[in-house]
Design goal:
2 strands, two-stranded parallel ribbon, single chain, mainly alpha
């Protein structure tokens, strides 16, 4: 797994290519969250493809769902799915939609409406507390 600086660079490169091939996206928002996602996925979050169904995993809710290409790039780099799938962004039949879609491996919740992430993350954190789990939920 690359360090956070290298991962942020890869996220931006993948996202730029994804947005070019798909002929659209919110590239500014995508680029603005690349560093945050890189730090989280480089070792802060307790999540991996092997433990994505573990109830004690950490959860990240990307509130600004229109920055999905950055999250998808981070998840692909982390091994949740093949890097080649990134180029299917916004194509018919692709699971990589323009907003975060929870059917994508590693994506915890479908988002799009700004502000909904805080409520979802709080609910997940409260559920973890009730379950006496060490998992963490955060939103961006």
């Amino acid at each position: 797994m690359p360090n956070s600086i290298e991962l942020a660079r890869k996220i931006r490169l993948h996202a730029l290519e994804m947005c070019f091939v798909s002929k659209g996206s919110h590239i500014g928002g995508v680029f603005s969250c690349a560093d945050m996602l890189a730090v989280l996925y480089s070792g802060v979050l307790n999540v991996s493809p092997k433990t994505q169904n573990d109830p004690n995993r950490d959860r990240l809710i990307l509130s600004k769902g229109h920055s999905a290409p950055a999250l998808y790039a981070a998840l692909a780099e982390k091994g949740f799915f093949e890097l080649s799938e990134l180029l299917t962004l916004r194509q018919n039949g692709s699971r990589l939609s323009g907003h975060v879609y929870m059917k994508v491996p590693g994506a915890e919740f479908s988002t799009g409406s700004l502000g909904q992430g805080i409520g979802v993350a709080c609910g997940m954190a409260l559920a973890a507390k009730i379950d006496k789990s060490d998992s963490r939920a955060t939103r961006s």
